[in-house]
Specification:
Helix content: 25-40%
CATH class of one domain: Alpha Beta
Bound molecules: 2-acetamido-2-deoxy-beta-D-glucopyranose
Oligomer: single chain
Distance between the termini: 45 Å
CATH superfamily of one domain: Vaccinia Virus protein VP39
Strand order of the largest sheet: 8-7-6-9-10-12-11
CATH topology of one domain: Rossmann fold
């Protein structure tokens, strides 16, 4: 039982779950059963059918067994399938074949050795060393092949306890559940997380918000309409212990926090322990595992991504996953370099150049800079590409992506091109259809 709990805390499982959901994308065509008129009609037809079937059967109740009715025959087939002696027809339902029936398959799996408590098969620091470190390729997902795959259960940490329930888990986690003291020491003056006896306390600090995430969000809400309902989904890069995402919950905003496993332990494990959505991930060579136009806002606060490197590849990936009209929020270098250059130990000239390149790149993506105040700069993706098509034609670079499916995100290499938005007829139209505000969005779908 406890082992199952520890698996849900393991950050790599978020990837696995995503993998499964990505494998079977939900159908995009609107369900005709949603229309109330059709639903009422269908129910009426079914009710009459059952009435007549019942009527017919009561007439023939003695002469004809119920199971000869075609509807009941179907039931009979289900009953025969439930008979354990009949093998279940697996192949028609699944595209993958069953693993060979090994003699041990009916026994319980063994536990892995104790040092595997935080083992993530696809993000294993021991295997990482086999891959080139250029553009952080070693930090991408590298899953073991079948020969290397382990068949054991990840053991719970010693002294594991049931996590605090929400909302207490927002501030507290048992130290024994995520026994990583290094972060509490190395980030001590940044106030990310403190060790208080047997529990970790998350005061809401961060590298870019040493005075607390609350002050940071108080500023952000003056720049971006956090309360409007237009922003519901956010992707946070280099999330630390996900205090940013934790605070946005107050605004009815859901944040997916993303970070690679770095020299500190997997920080997303702290986030998951707190009950916050998080995933191991890095911008390196593959696209982010999301379809295009998924997020209302993307955020990076000193996330150490080389936004202007590789021909702007990574900012183009942000552009892909942002919805039309979505926000890009950046704090940390080079933003506000005039105030901070000494603390960052970089020259003013260097930072100024970086900021100019960044502004230029954003312009080439047809983004509009909304504002820059204090540590925060905000850009906005256009709501359609009517103007952008003309601009990109004139500039020659970057180009719109020609072939690749904009929604393919799973092990898909990134290309330095702009993902085209769906075509619109009018400059005021929103590409792909306007979205309702949250929470109305939940029960409507765009045309
Ligand atoms: C029930 O199963 C039999 C044999 O598999 C099949 O021929 C028959 O069509 C099935 N009946 C229904 C109603 O699905
Ligand atoms: C656990 O320890 C063994 C033996 O020292 C080592 O081979 C293995 O790589 C370790 N596993 C992890 C996940 O650290």
């Amino acid at each position: 039982m406890e082992a199952t709990v520890s698996i849900t805390l393991n950050p790599c499982n978020a990837n696995l779950i995503k993998a499964r959901t990505m494998a079977t994308p939900p159908p995009t065509t609107p369900n005709p059963l949603r229309k109330p008129l059709i639903r009422v009609l269908l129910i009426t037809i079914l009710c009459s059918l059952f009435y007549f079937v019942g009527f017919y059967n009561s007439f023939n109740s003695t002469s004809k067994p119920l199971l000869q009715d075609p509807y009941c025959l179907q039931l009979k087939n289900i009953t025969t399938l439930q008979n354990p002696r009949q093998p279940l027809h697996f192949e028609p339902q699944h595209t993958l074949s069953l693993p060979p029936d090994s003699p041990q398959s009916h026994q319980f799996f063994k536990y892995c050795p104790k040092n595997f408590t935080n083992y993530c098969p696809c993000q294993d620091p021991n295997r990482e060393t086999r891959f080139p470190t250029g553009s952080l390729f070693h930090r991408e997902r590298h899953c073991p092949g079948t020969a290397e795959a382990l068949r054991c259960l990840v053991p719970t940490p010693v002294g594991y306890r049931r996590p605090f329930s929400w909302p207490k888990s927002r501030y507290y986690a048992w130290f024994n559940n995520v026994p990583f003291p290094r972060l509490t020491v190395s980030k001590k003056n940044q106030n990310w997380v403190r060790l208080e006896a047997d529990r970790l306390f998350f005061p809401g600090g961060g590298t870019s918000f040493p005075t607390g995430v609350k002050g940071y969000i108080d500023l952000l809400k003056q720049l971006v309409p956090l309360k409007s309902g237009n922003i519901r989904t956010v992707l946070d890069f280099g999330c630390g212990v996900a205090s940013f995402g934790a605070s946005l919950i107050d605004y009815n905003i859901l944040t997916m926090s993303l970070a690679p496993r770095d020299i500190h332990e997997a920080q997303v494990q702290f986030a998951l322990e707190r009950g916050l959505p998080a995933m191991l991930g890095v911008l390196s060579t593959y696209r982010l595992p999301y379809p295009s136009r998924s997020f209302d806002m993307a955020h990076c606060s000193r996330c150490l991504v080389q936004w202007i490197g590789y021909g702007g590849l990574y900012l183009m990936e942000i552009d892909r996953i942002l919805r039309p009209g979505g926000y890009w929020v950046l704090s940390g270098p080079p933003i506000n370099w005039r105030v901070n250059y000494k603390g960052w130990q970089r020259t003013q000239d260097d930072l100024k150049k970086e900021q100019n390149s960044l502004e230029d790149l954003a312009r080439r993506l047809c983004w509009k800079k909304i504002t820059e105040r204090g540590p925060i700069a905000v850009w906005r993706k256009p709501t359609n590409h009517i103007h952008c098509i003309q601009k990109l034609k004139a500039w020659k670079s970057p180009n719109f992506c020609a072939e690749a499916d904009p929604d393919a995100g799973w092990y898909m290499k990134m290309n330095a091109c702009v993902t085209p938005l769906p075509h619109v007829a009018d400059i005021h139209d929103i590409a792909g259809g306007a979205l309702e505000k949250w929470p109305e969005r939940l029960n409507t779908c765009s045309a």
